[in-house]
Amino acid sequence: MYAAIIAYLTIGSSPLNVSRYDFTQAHMGVRVDISLYAPDRAAAERAAQAAFDEISRIEVIASDYRPDSEAMRLCDRAGQGPVRVSPTLMNLLLRSEQFHYHSGGLFDVTAGPLVRLWRESRRTGVLPTHEAVQGARRNAGMGAVIIEPAA
Fold first, then answer.
1. Strand, helix or coil for residue 34
2. In angstroms, how far is the first alpha carbon of the chain from the final one?
3. Structural domains counted in the chain
4. I need a labelling partner for 15 at 20 to 30 A (CA). Which of 55, 63, 112, 113 fits?
5. Which residues, including other chains, have CB under 8 Å from residue 40's CB and lie 6 or more apart?
6. Residue that finishes a domain, picked among 62, 94, 110
7. Do residues 25 and 53 share a domain?
8. Is residue 47 part of a domain?
C-alpha cells in the first residue's frame, strides 16, 4: 500500500527552475512516497522532512498500532464518560465522522474490535468464529460515539 504526497515548491522561482525529488519512509504501517518539485535538493529535503515529521506527529496521536497513542488511550476509556482530547485528535474524529456519513457507514473509525480480531486471525492463520465476529461488531459502530467539539 502506498500513500503519496505531492507538493510543489516554487520558493520565488519559476516552474522551469525546479527539479523533481522523491523521498520514501515507512509511517503508519505503510510506505509513504513524497514527490516534490524544488529549486535544489536541500530545499526538497527540508520540505520532505517537514512532511514526514507531521506524519510522525499524527501517528503518535492516532495510531492503533501504538498502545500509548492518544487514540488508543481514548479507546481504553470508551463508555466511561466524556474524555478531553487534543485539537489534532478532535479534528481527526470530526473528519472521520464526515467520512463515515459520506461513505454510508463504510468508513468507521470504531471498527477497532473487528480490526484486532482479523489481525489475530492473520497472525494465527485461523479464521474467527461467527460468534467472535458478531461480538466484535457489537463493540463497534459510530452510532455510540458522541463528538462534542466545544466541550
1. strand
2. 37
3. 2
4. 55
5. 19
6. 62
7. yes
8. yes
How far, in Å, CA of 24 to CA of 26, rounded? 7
* Co-location of 87 and 53 in the same domain: no
Which residue's entry shows cell 492463520? Answer: 125
| pLDDT range class, residue 103, cuts 50, 70, 90 | very high
Is there a domain that residue 13 lies in? yes
Distance, in Å, from the CA atom of 18 to the CA atom of 5, rounded to the nearest integer, reads 17
Q: CA 129 to CA 120: how far, in whole Å?
A: 12
* Adjacent-strand bridge partners of 36: 7, 21
CA distance 95 to 18: 34
Q: Which of 71, 61, 67 is nearest to 27 (CA)?
A: 61
Indicate the pLDDT class of residue 150, thresholds 50, 70 and 90.
confident
Q: What is the pLDDT of residues 47-93, one digit of tens each?
A: 999 999 999 999 999 998 888 999 999 988 888 888 999 999 999 99
pLDDT tens per residue across span 9-34: 444 445 579 999 999 999 988 999 99
For the entire predicted model, the pTM comes to 0.70
